Amino acid sequence: MNLCRLLALTVALVLTAAVAPQPAAADTPEMLAGKQVAIMITEGFHDGETLVPMAYLANRGAEVTLIGEAPGVYTAYNSDITMVVERSVTEVSPEDFDLLLIPGGQSPANLRENEDVVAWTRTYFEAGGLTAAICHGPQVLVTAGVIEGRTLTCVGGISGEITGAGGEYVDERVVRDGNLITSRVPGDLPAFSEAIAAAMAEETS
Questions:
Q1: Tens-digit pLDDT profile for residues 37-60
Q2: Catalytic residues, which ones?
Q3: For 112, phi and psi rounded to 5 degrees?
Q4: Which of 54, 120, 192, 199 has the most CB atoms less than 10 A away?
């Protein structure tokens, strides 16, 4: 594990301790062992929306890979925290992952401008891959053209994009519609993280 990731996870553990829900009876350190998670970010990601679910899932045995438009070091828009994107979407296959997580911030608006990112996301989602997005994260799904007929939530400021793309927007803490899990804002992170872990565990059982 590189130093940047170790430091980021340390910060995430502190954040998670402050917001994490009480563990469910089936919640164990190995409940997600063998699961592969792709977190998609670029410049301007939201630190908490990236780090909290990352730590939550890693602490339950999942292997996390940061993917994006290009490998490199990227900075959060709301802090000085940096994260290392390890692989470009052109270097990995959608079939390699059990979850695609798209945090919010300014990152989704940047990601949606990249054709490879949009195509990769569309392929993953349309194959039934479990997808989670929070805050501005659903913007990538809007551009990918995959939310028509789906019920989801997001930060209120982009709710018009959801309805304009044929989705049904609801103002709820966490919403699951089939293979899609969405939340609104950082305050929803405990429920969001728990819902993701539960959905991944369901696929194992």
A1: 999 999 999 999 999 999 999 999
A2: 135
A3: -65, -15
A4: 192
